[in-house]
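Please, structure for the following, as C-alpha cells.
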Amino acid sequence: MSESIELSEFIAEQEESDAKKYARLVEINEWIAALKEELSDLETELGAKQPKKWEDVPNIGRFERYRTTAKTTWDDQRLRSQCIQAAREQRIATDDGEIIEDPVERAVFVLSTAAAFTWRVGKVEERTGLAAFGIDADQYREKEKGILKVKLVSKAEERQ
C-alpha cells in the first residue's frame, strides 16, 4: 500500500463490512482525541479552583487535585558518577540473581537500569531505576512546577 494513499481510498479498497469498521474506528479515534482535549481543559480549570487536595463524592469517587511537572532538569554528570560509584561499591546482580563480577559490566548494568532516554527514578522495593542502587533522585534534579489539575478516581480504582 502506498504511503500517500488517502483514507477514503484505503476504505474503498476494503471489503464492505471492514470498510464500515475502519470508518467507525477513525470516527471513534476523532471523538477520543476531542474528549481527551476537553478532559484536560476541565482538569486544568477545576485544578485551579478546587481548594482541597481531594473531595469525596458519594457514589462517584474522589476528585484529587495534583500538580503536573512542567520540566525536570537532571544533573547528568553527578548522576553518572553516582551510578559508577554504586557499581564499584555494591554487589550487583542481574534480574535472575547472577552476580556481575566484571566492573565494566556492572557499570553498564547500573547505567542501563537507571537511565534510558531519561533517568529512571524507580522504586527501592522493585529494585528499579536509581532507587535500586540507593540513589535519591531528588538530590540530582530540579523540577519546574506545572499547573494544578483534578482527576476523578472512581470507586473501582480506589479499591485497587
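The longest strand covers residues 61-74. The beta strands are 54-57, 61-74, 141-154.
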